[in-house]
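Help: why these numbers?

___
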Amino acid sequence: MGRRGKRKELTGVVINNKMDKSVKLLVERAAKHRKYKKYTRCRATYMAHDPHNRCGIGNKVRIIESRPISKSKRWRVLEILD
């Protein structure tokens, strides 16, 4: 019956919304170093589909994994949190 498990969800901050129906997000997470056990900040950027152009720069949004929408977009905006 299709996929096993849930689709991935991430939370990030919008850093660019100049495109039509697209936003670029910055997602930060804390990762522990294997040897030194110190936490480091890991950053990644994602392109997400925003069909109604509702997201503004600085908004905190939740995105969900989806089918490929374009060459770079594999995520959709689920909801605007802030």
About this structure: The chain has a mean pLDDT of 95. The chain is about 0% helix and 50% strand. The two ends are 35 Å apart (CA to CA).
